[in-house]
């Protein structure tokens, strides 16, 4: 496998008036093509900051962010917008669907702007929502809305799928089925997934576990005993 992503000495400083907050303090890690990465850490450790920088939604104060063969750290807003649109799929804790578009339209709307997008209806079939194509978000359960959000991210055919607490608002069984979906997608399509969570049990399904502490990497470990989500309990 070859490295798809490299963070090299990445720092991020936020300024609020006179106050400086060092959210990232020299972060280094590598993610290989096709890897399922789980990122763990306490609240405020810097996980979302890493995900936002990786997704081109925020910029680093210093350091390099290599994606493919390019350093996106030096990119301007226009380049980052194209990168976000074409290369990165996002799944958040709250589904952020467009309320006045149905499931199919939500997926089509996101996918259409991407050159290599997949067929929206096919993807909704894949996530088990073939019978809910014309349903609006308000007519869908939380788990179903998250499936639409995953379909929307995947239909772009992204290089990288970033998931920030994707099961945070779901009950146990629904959360597990959403994780199963991500696991299947990773295995079948080889899409690289980076999943941020507070739930340490979920790390058992990862290829690589990255722990973040106080703006630094605490540890990076390959998971030699990777488990299917069906076998994980919490
Ligand atoms: N836009 C911002 N402006 C100022 N400070 C910020 C901003 N975003 C994050 N921070 C600060 O940076 C640090 C890291 O925050 P971050 O959201 O990355 O942590 P996290 O590990 O994702 O936490 P959580 O698990 O609670 O979501 C925190 O001290 C936070 O307060």
Helix and strand layout, with pairings?
Elements: E1 3-16, E2 19-32, E3 36-40, H1 47-54, E4 62-67, E5 70-71, H2 77-87, E6 88-91, H3 103-111, H4 120-126, H5 142-155, E7 160-164, H6 172-189, E8 192-196, E9 208-213, E10 216-222
Parallel strand pairs: 3-8, 3-9, 6-7, 7-8
Antiparallel strand pairs: 1-2, 1-4, 4-5, 9-10
Helix pairs in contact: 3-5, 4-5, 5-6
The chain binds adenosine-5'-triphosphate.
Describe what this molecule looks like in 3D.
The protein has 234 residues and is an alpha/beta fold. The chain has a single domain (34-59, 76-231), classed as Rossmann fold (3-Layer(aba) Sandwich), CATH 3.40.50. It is 29% helix and 29% strand. The chain has six helices and ten strands. The chain has helices at residues 47-54, 77-87, 103-111, 120-126, 142-155, 172-189, and strands at residues 3-16, 19-32, 36-40, 62-67, 70-71, 88-91, 160-164, 192-196, 208-213, 216-222. The strands form two sheets. The protein has a six-stranded mixed β-sheet with strand order 6-7-8-3-9-10, with helices on both faces. Helix 6 links the parallel strand 7 (160-164) and strand 8. Helix 3 runs parallel beside helix 5, helix 4 packs across helix 5 (142-155) and helix 5 runs parallel beside helix 6. The protein is globular, with a radius of gyration of 17 Å. The mean pLDDT is 93. The protein binds adenosine-5'-triphosphate.
């Amino acid at each position: 496998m070859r490295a798809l992503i490299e963070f090299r000495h990445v720092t991020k400083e936020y300024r609020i008036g006179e106050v400086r907050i060092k959210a990232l303090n020299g972060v280094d890690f590598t993610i290989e093509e096709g890897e399922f990465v789980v990122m763990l850490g306490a609240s405020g450790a810097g996980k979302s900051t890493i995900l936002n920088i990786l997704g081109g939604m925020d910029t680093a104060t210093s350091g390099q962010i290599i994606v493919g063969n390019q350093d996106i750290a030096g990119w301007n807003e226009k380049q980052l917008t194209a990168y976000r649109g074409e290369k990165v799929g996002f799944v958040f804790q709250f589904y952020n669907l467009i309320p006045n578009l149905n499931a199919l339209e939500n997926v089509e709307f996101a996918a259409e702007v991407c050159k290599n997008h997949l067929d929206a209806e096919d993807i909704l079939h894949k996530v088990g929502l073939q019978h809910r194509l014309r349903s609006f978000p308000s007519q869908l359960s939380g788990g179903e809305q998250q499936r639409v959000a995953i379909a929307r991210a995947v239909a772009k055919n992204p290089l990288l799928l970033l998931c920030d607490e994707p099961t945070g608002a779901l009950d146990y069984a629904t959360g597990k089925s959403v994780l199963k979906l991500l696991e299947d997608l990773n295995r079948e399509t080889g899409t690289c997934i980076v999943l941020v969570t507070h739930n340490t049990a979920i790390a058992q399904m990862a290829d690589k576990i990255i722990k973040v502490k106080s703006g630094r990497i605490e540890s990076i470990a390959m998971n030699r005993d990777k488990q299917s989500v069906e076998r994980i309990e919490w």
